[in-house]
Amino acid sequence: MEDQSQPSPPPPLPQPPPPLKTYKITASSISYVKSTTTSNSIIAPFLLFKQCTTTPPSYILKEVSLTAYPSQILAVVGPSGAGKSTLLDILAARTSPTSGILLLNSTPINPSSFRKLSAYVPQHDACLQLLTVSETFTFAARLLNPKSSQIATIVESLLNELNLTHLANARLAHGLSGGERRRVSIGLSLLHDPGTVVHHGSLSSLESFLLSNGFTVPPQLNALEYAMEILNQLQESKPNTPPSLPPSPDNSTISPSDNKARSVKNKSSRLHEICVLYSRFWKIIYRTRQLLLTNTLEALVVGLVLGTIYINLGYGKQGIEKRFGLFAFTLTFLLSSTTETLPIFINERPILLRETSSGLYKLSSYLIANTLVFLPYLLAIAIIYSVSIYFMVGLCGTWQAFAYFVLVIWVIVLMGNSFVLFLSSLAPNYIAGTSLVTILLGGFFLFSGYFISQDSMPKYWLFMHFFSMYKYALDALLINEYSCLVNKCFLWYQENSTCMVTGGDVLQKRGLHERQRWTNIYILLGFFVFYRVLCLLVLIRRVSRSKK
After folding, report:
1. Do residues 465 and 449 make contact, with C-beta atoms less than 8 angstroms apart?
2. I need a surface site. Which of 32, 389, 415, 505 has the fewest CB within 10 A?
3. Which pLDDT value is given to residue 515?
4. Is the confidence at residue 415, as pLDDT, over 90?
5. Could you tell me if 159 and 150 are in contact, meaning their C-beta atoms sit under 8 angstroms apart?
6. pLDDT averaged over the chain?
């Protein structure tokens, strides 16, 4: 008897995964010119000036055109000096070409957004040498994935993929070969995870996707620009990938006026950035044993040596001169000692610019974390110096005067640290930075009022007296000391018969009054904030120039 039942239908074939969004980079007539100028000195009556002449431009790249297709590897081959690195910097939106057009799927590239959406491994490795490989990845992952509870898993997986597990606890300063350092740089780029698709489809489907996720496109923006602005919020939503391929984007165009330079928001909150950077700063400072030991020993040894030189200052004319000399040398030592951090700041600057330009954190978060780290560190230095010298030389013996002395010393070193941080952002290298610090500190000390009083200065140099950091610090120390000795006689006429000079007279001669005690502190704090703001502006300028 035959089986009359119908055969069961075959199982459905598995559907292919939806296609991912592909990108094509097109460079058209890219040129990069390095202009050179020469100057000839011409001596004319009563004048010495230089005549600048412009030489023909030196082309590093000239009329370069190429297309990088998706799912393909494009090799850029050429001899040394052919401009390969410059071309890659331009393609990665790290450098702006002198002329030419750079397109992403027929759309002009927005450098600010493209830098944060793409990964780029630079030619030279720029990493914090005192951190371990694992710590380097961990800090970057904490900033890029602030809400993730799997940071350790992400870092462990990355170490395995790059075959760096055996070097996880090795510091970057030593123990790594050139290839291993390169893999660390690649790992940092992979942490950005630029291969993630939030939406795949046409512009019209993108607008529908935004509406379905509760976002309304503002009238002044198109759907793509608005999606770039809220990208971090979209990444938390479920990606929408329609099964059918959208029309080719090669036919779509966006006018340059619509493609405004808008930034993708940082993934971390400001508080989270500050906490992570604060932790990283402390690790670096703690591991800079040489700097820690040097600063501590300097404060202790110089304080003890000065204490033995100016021991028991006493009174009389010599007592007045000794106090003046002690305070002046204290300021010189404290402000000059802060220059030791100059090479550290300059070495960190390229790393700072790379991390902030790629959207890892904000410049302001870096400066706030830097300030919070140095506040207790420099307070400890101020206390060590003050304790080692204050009581030995016999300054005012009240605890209020000693506390004010420590406060002044603390504010001075904070101001010096802020001043050096500003110059490190401005100077092109360590040698130029050292020269700037030396010249400016020497000028400030010259116009402080120690060598020449305010009344004796030429009027056209008087403005430098009020710009001098030394002036307000020196005045604060003098007010603190002589306010305690207002009625104390320093000079007698005919041995204890008539007092000629009291502590109050010393203050009056210098145009000082006890009421100015806190005014000078406020001005010094103003310098501290002023130089940090200048540093922020210089760094913002450096980052913006790289984004053009």
Report:
1. yes
2. 505
3. 86
4. yes
5. no
6. 79
| pTM beyond 0.85, yes or no | no
Amino acid residing at 312: N
From residue 301, alpha-carbon distances to 113, 333, 411 in Å are 52, 12, 21
Q: What is the C-alpha separation between 185 and 183, in angstroms, rounded? A: 5
How far are the Cα atoms of 22, 198, 246, 447, 506 from residue 17, in angstroms, in the given order? 14, 15, 15, 74, 86
Cα-Cα-Cα-Cα torsion 155, 160, 163, 168, nearest 10 degrees, comes to 40
| Range name among 107-111, 163-167, 317-321, 435-439 with the lowest pLDDT average | 107-111
- DSSP letters, 461-506, are GHHHHHH-HHHHHHHHHHHHHHHTTTT-EEEEETTTTEEEEEHHHH
**Displacement of CA 300 from its chain's centroid (Å):** 30
Residue pair 268/146 in contact (Cβ under 8 Å)? The answer is yes
Helices within 427-446 (DSSP H only) = 430-446
Question: What whole-number distance in Å separates Cα of residue 295 and Cα of residue 380?
Answer: 10
Residues 501 and 115: their CA atoms lie apart, in Å, by 68
Cβ neighbours, 10 Å, residue 56: 8
User: H helices of 338-467, where?
Assistant: 342-357, 363-393, 399-426, 430-446, 462-467
Dist CA 190 CA 154 (whole Å): 11
Q: Is the pLDDT of residue 154 over 90?
A: no
Counted residue by residue, the chain has a size of: 548
Q: Give residue for tokens 């119908």.
A: 6
CA 198, 200, 204, 209 torsion: positive or negative? negative
- Measured distance CA(361)–CA(356) in Å, rounded: 5
Q: Which helix (H) or strand (E) holds 44?
A: strand 37-44
Does residue 204 or residue 48 have the better pLDDT?
A: 204
- DSSP annotation of 147: T
Residue 199 CB partners (closer than 8 Å, separation 6+) = 21, 205, 206, 209, 227, 234, 239, 240, 241
| pLDDT at residue number 2 | 46
DSSP 199: B
The residue with tokens 């800090």 is: 139
Count helices and strands in the chain by DSSP H and E runs: 19, 8
Instruction: Characterize the bridge pairing of strands 25-34 and 37-44.
Output: unpaired
Question: If pLDDT is split at 50, 70 and 90, which confidence band does 269 have?
Answer: confident
- 3-class secondary-structure state, position 240: strand
Radius of gyration of the chain (CA): 32
